Amino acid sequence: MSAPHTNSEPEHDTDRNYLVRKFKTEINMLATNKVQLVGYAGTNPEMVELKSSKYKKAIISLATRESYKKDGEWFNITTWHKVVAWNNMATKVCEMVQKGSKVNVTGKVSYRQVDGKKGKFTLSEITVNDISLEPTK
Fold it and tell me: Are 126 and 96 in contact (CB under 8 A)?
């Protein structure tokens, strides 16, 4: 007879491989820079063609809103996001988005230092991986 199975070790090597793959997947998910925003375009896309290269980018402002209730009264918080799309995605954004469009943006967050009137500050941007229009009521 074989020794009884304990909960501390997988019964088969394939179980161990499954657990390793699952663990790696969970770790990768924790370390992924991915954001999804659903909001309204506050501007028409602005297309910028960079003179120093063949690249182009489209920029839009996207408004998202959160609502919460405090002491029986509802409050809304609107947050504005700078959304940037590059090259073919920039063309897609310019073709489909206009001010007031409800859009679903998937992308990543990036930060960069900018010199402003009051000194340096950090600017956050959402770089678009995919964008789609959302139905409006």
Answer: no
pLDDT digits (tens, 9 = 90+) for 17-48: 777 777 666 666 666 899 999 999 999 999 99
**Domain-embedded: residue 20:** no
**70: domain CATH number?**
2.40.50.140
Is residue 67 situated within a structural domain?
A: yes
* The total number of structural domains that make up the chain: 1
Euclidean distance between CA atoms 79 and 61, whole angstroms: 10
Closest CA to 105 of 125, 88, 124: 125
Q: Has this prediction a pTM greater than 0.85? A: no
Distance CA 15, CA 31 (A): 25
Residue type, 136: T
